[in-house]
Sequence to fold (268 residues):
Amino acid sequence: MKVKVAILGCSGRMGRNLIQAAIEHKSIELVGGSVRKGSSFENFDLGEIAGIGAIGNKTTTDYQTLLAADVLIDFTSIEATLEHIQWCKQHNKALVIGTTGFSDQQVETIKAAGEHIPLVLAPNTSVGVNLLFKLLEITAKAIGDYTDIEIFEAHHRFKKDAPSGTAVKMGQVIADTLGRDLNKVAVYGREGITGERDSSTIGFATVRAGDIVGEHTAYFADIGERLELTHKASSRMTFALGAMRAAFWLSGAPAGYYDMQDVLGLKD
Ligand code: NAD
Fold:
């Protein structure tokens, strides 16, 4: 049986890719999609929004029409996602959250929702990036205590948050592995007379330019050698396909707060 999925924010950059990925996925049935109130894409055919031809299913701002879905997929905005979580709790729907930029407090709210419904919070739904998280854990364990650790990320000019949720998660994975508190050791950009590098810090550098889909590199640098672990996304379809994988996995899961490591079976 196919998993019934609805896409929230389906006229956005990710929304369009999510529609295409849902239509092409053999185990998923796309049952609806929302746009924000007042959007010029209200009542548009979902297939036409994705540029793949009409499918006879229209966008809505009325969430009651999405009740047929087993799983909702949300790549919208922080405010919208926090509202969507409440709706999913009320209607007992599973939720895949791809939206990024939540504060620690907002993440606590999302975790608490996981006591009532199954949800995946995934600042990056790419399978490659989630494998990168695992490789960072292995690398940090082996050499993190004596190398300088820096994280670089680059995205398109329209991205609203920085550093990216993925870069922060990379830092979190490394800090957790090394028993450091990321809030204390993170250095977000440098300017002026900064002094010598403090070896316990984890540095972040950000580029925003053109149409870069998403690039992330972690540097583990020692004297004489450095290891760089890099992921480059060349199309948003990679995130959309990962989100479908999460939706399919979540449809069989009990209430809980999950991440892509759970979805991909990468947890020890
Ligand atoms: P976007 O601005 O192109 O799309 C967001 C869409 O959400 C817009 O169409 C907007 O109208 C819609 N929206 C806002 N409020 C809404 C509401 N209440 N109901 C329905 N729709 C609503 O942005 P984007 O590039 O598609 O990114 C969206 C989010 O996903 C961002 O937070 C981004 O950082 C994140 N993102 C995550 C991943 C990942 O792998 N998890 C990948 C890419 C982007």
User: Anything to note?
Assistant: The pocket of nicotinamide-adenine-dinucleotide is lined by residues 8-9, 11-15, 34-36, 39, 75-77, 80, 98-101, 122-125, 239 (CB under 6 Å). The domain at 3-121+236-263 is CATH 3.40.50.720 (Rossmann fold). The chain has a mean pLDDT of 96.
